[in-house]
Design brief:
single chain, about 290 residues, alpha+beta, Nucleoside Triphosphate Pyrophosphohydrolase, 2 domains, four-stranded mixed sheet, three-stranded antiparallel sheet, 7 strands, about 15% strand
């Protein structure tokens, strides 16, 4: 089969945060003794997803899903040798290359196909004669994508921060307006008409504030979930996951567990109800 047919395989391009690629020094042919990316062939009747999970576990010691990676492209690797080291039989691989960017690199990858591992920067890989030439193209394949991803990811984080900032500015500004309007509505020196007008404005401000608070909350939660999904799929540290404090006797923990959004929602709702009462019965203060 090796003599007469090409083999389908998967290469795993594992990058760290400095854009270096994890390479292992191969024990077996082909490319024996050379630095190469982890990978392996796809078995017959095995789906690409199944092969990806199996190869990542056997080569890296960590079970990754294909959804956690990015497809770089199809490559061809042709060698003069084969894994049985039989003479005059070369190996032809059609390679599906996938990039993985884990938050933490595999600590102790299995040593079944490699006797050591280390990360290489692009300049190191190009200048080191022990790094196989088929590895070098992987360094330039994802630069534009990574730049675009970094920009998009940063933009999503900035948008989430903006929604979060606007979310908590809303009740603060609303309370300022409510304090002014209720000072008028509750004053005994104001006419019934003036009291109704102030209370009506307070009710409008309360309703508008609740709507704006809810809109900003939706935007903040939506972007947080989107960012969390991206981080999970790419195996990144989930910095956008919402922390849930454990309940203890310490007041800080159970107060922190309360949802601030709902506290402010009902507070603004309370102002609206009070304003409605004043509108219905403006003379109750007499």
């Amino acid at each position: 089969m090796i003599k007469n047919s090409p083999l389908a395989s998967i290469d795993l391009i594992v990058r760290d945060f400095d854009d270096r690629i994890l390479l292992g020094r191969r024990i077996n042919e082909p490319a024996k003794g050379m630095w190469f990316v982890p990978g392996g062939r796809i078995h017959k009747n095995e789906s690409v997803d199944e092969a990806f999970t199996r190869i990542s576990l056997s080569e890296l010691g960590i079970e990754y899903r294909r959804s956690q990676s990015r497809f770089i492209g199809v490559f061809e690797n042709i060698y003069d040798t084969n894994f049985l080291e039989k003479p005059n039989i070369g190996t032809h691989y059609v390679v599906l290359a996938y990039e993985i960017r884990p938050s933490i690199l595999p600590a102790k990858p299995p040593m079944t196909q490699h006797n050591e591992f280390r990360c290489f920067a692009k300049d190191e890989a190009i200048s080191d004669s022990q790094v196989h030439r088929y590895v070098v193209p992987y360094y330039s394949e994802s630069n534009s994508f990574n730049d675009a991803f970094a920009c998009q990811y940063g933009a999503l984080n900035s948008r989430r921060d903006s929604y979060n900032s606007l979310l908590w500015q809303t009740p603060v500004l609303s309370l300022t307006a409510q304090a002014f309007l209720f000072t008028i509505a509750l004053s005994k020196d104001v006419t019934v008409t003036g009291r109704k007008i102030a209370a009506s404005l307070a009710l409008i401000v309360a309703i508008a504030s609740i709507q704006l608070l809810t809109k900003h909350r939706f935007g903040e939660v939506y972007h947080a979930k989107l960012l969390q999904r991206i981080e999970k799929e790419r195996g990144l540290m989930q910095i956008n996951a919402r922390p849930v404090p454990m309940i203890t006797r310490n007041p800080e923990t159970w107060l922190a567990k309360l949802r601030s959004y709902w506290i402010w929602f009902f507070l603004l709702l309370g102002f609206g109800i009070c304003a409605l009462i004043i509108i219905i019965k403006p003379d109750w203060l007499k």
